Amino acid sequence: MRNYSIRAASPDDLDGARAVMLDTVYRDFGTGYVPRWHGDIIDPAAAYLVPARHTLLVARTPQDGAVVATAALDSRGPAHPPNPRHVADRYPSGETAQLRRVYVRPEHRRRGLARRLVDELLAFAAADGGYRAVYLHTDPAVPGAEAFWRSLGKVVHDEREDPDGGNGVIHFELPMGR
Q1: What is the four-CA torsion angle of 34, 39, 40, 44, rounded to 10 degrees?
Q2: What is the rounded CA–CA span in Å between residue 43 and residue 59?
Q3: For 119, phi and psi rounded to 5 degrees?
């Protein structure tokens, strides 16, 4: 495994972080940039660097310092809609640390990088002291995503089991102190 450096993003990291995020929503999700879902990608400083209880982590390569992975946390719970009401009620804003944008460039996957980033986010949430739960949702169509998150947390709702299929995403809770 390469010696990636992981740190809280600085303004100098934002262009690289934005590129990783945009590449992921285009390549892995196939949605491209959707303003109502991805506003934080365009302005990650306002979303993650300015608010005290939020963070954006980046992983950089030792060779050239390129940003190859991102992981973010904010204090906004899942909104209803598009998420099921019972999920939104269970994870209210202010009390919920929501993991977002845990993305690793394909050529850097399967090296434990995402797990290291998530561990750092969980430590950040625990150190905050005001979060009572850690929540995330994932698209099971993304290769490896469902198995990865199942290895770290518990499923609280799988929309694929809804009568109408919902949005097809899986909602997870992770333990704060892993």
Answers
A1: 120
A2: 19
A3: -60, -40
